[in-house]
Amino acid sequence: DSGVTQTPKHLITATGQRVTLRCSPRSGDLSVYWYQQSLDQGLQFLIQYYNGEERAKGNILERFSAQQFPDLHSELNLSSLELGDSALYFCASSGLAGVGGELFFGEGSRLTVL
Amino acid sequence: QKEVEQDPGPLSVPEGAIVSLNCTYSNSAFQYFMWYRQYSRKGPELLMYTYSSGNKEDGRFTAQVDKSSKYISLFIRDSQPSDSATYLCAGGGSQGNLIFGKGTKLSVKP
Q1: What is the β-pairing status of strands A64-68 and A74-78?
Q2: For A69, which DSSP code?
Q3: Mutating which of A43, A88, A91, A107 best tests the B interface, going by the most B Cβ atoms within 10 A?
Q4: Which of A44, A60, A76, B85 is the most buried if burial means most Cβ atoms within 10 Å?
């Protein structure tokens, strides 16, 4: 158990809908990362937050947004969903703001868009 | 070109074999490199961590980084069926986020 909690574990929804994925980082970790994993693209970095502020941005679509709250939990919002958004979404946390930290991953949220 | 390239396999070996997993990367800003192991339906977990060039050994696992050729390797000695998983290489820089390869699926047959 990594200590990172993600909910929901599974989610099935329809195209055009909006969903919110939630992540609770390990106790004491200030950095949260979101990744998308699909069969053809692998594990793609979406966005990083550190202590409530956006730190780095990767291949995150404009339809997606995220935030980190004062209690350090984070949410990833996916809107106007398309079939291609079906994937595993992982949250990871680390104790460091930047260089060199091990990322601890949650079990992921599996999103299926029908 | 993806920042980290990795042959997705699958790779199938008999128990006890030496396994060699490799990645190449293009981002010169990467300062540290990691290998993660991911079992089916689970999140990735850290296996090996290497800062800059060189070798690192941990039990049956050896990680190598050659920054001059931008090449990352993981060797598994005396492979076991429990090593069957997807292995992900990753590079990291000053921002802290990791850039992953697509992963190599390994199957170790008893």
Answers
A1: antiparallel
A2: -
A3: A43
A4: A76
Query: Taking CB atoms and an 8 Å limit, are A106 and B43 in contact across chains?
Result: yes
- Residue B8 token pair: 């997705």
Centroid of chain to Cα B22: 7
Write the pLDDT tens digit of every residue in A73-84: 999 999 999 999
For residue A83, give the amino acid letter: L
Q: Which two tokens stand for residue A82?
A: 């398309």
Half-sphere exposure of A113 (CA within 13 A, CB side): 16
Structure tokens given for B53: 């060039």
CB < 8 Å to B100, chain A? 35, 42-45
What are the tens digits of pLDDT across the range B57-105?
999 999 999 999 999 999 999 999 999 999 999 998 877 788 999 999 9
Structure tokens at B56: 């690192």
β-pair type (A109-113, A10-13):
parallel
Inspect the interface and report whether the beta carbons of B95 and A48 lie closer than 8 Å: yes
Q: Say if CB B107 and CB B10 are below 8 A apart.
A: yes
Cβ contact B97–A58 (<8 Å):
yes
For residue A6, give the chain B residue with the closest CA. Answer: B43
